[in-house]
Structure prediction request, 195 residues.
Amino acid sequence: MLDKDGYRPNVGIILLNGRNEVFWGKRVKQHSWQFPQGGIKYGESPEQAMYRELWEEVGLKTEHVKIVGRTREWLRYDVPEQWIRRELRGNYRGQKQIWFLLRLVGRDCDVCLRTTTHPEFDAWRWHEYWVPLETVIEFKRDVYQQALLELSRFVFKLGRSHSKPMRPRPAQSIEVNTVNGAASPIASEPPPEAA
Prediction:
């Protein structure tokens, strides 16, 4: 389902824990990290799509999270032509996203990356709010920055700077190993920076 400008409607999810750290997922069999996201199906509202994607990619149900905020407008990114399937070239430009900021009210052990037969992530960690954009695929970086900046007003107290520079920092987080769908914390190093 594309809009008249060639953008596919999509949702992005920034999931916070009690320390205002964000869920950071490692894509299956890749060394790239990202937030959960996915397409809006015909007839779904952005909120319905967000809850579906949250279940499919992270294994969390509506009772495990609370909506804190969302972006006011669609945020768009163009996908480079070499990433577009041949049959879509000429019509498809990229994605337009509504981003949701969620608070985990469940527990870390509620996360399950194996709720579907085609998981999106094979590991995850909690990371400080200002994630290192260098670890995000290049064409999504501007949208990540826009979403993090817009939604930071819900996270940080008034008077604190919301325009903190986004640069790589060492992760002080937990990576979770998902053997047989069970979550168990393991020691973790930060993801390697893009070359």
Q: What stands out?
A: The chain has one domain: 7-186. Residues 46-58 form the longest helix (13 residues). Confidence is low (pLDDT under 50) at residues 161-195. The chain is about 10% helix and 30% strand.
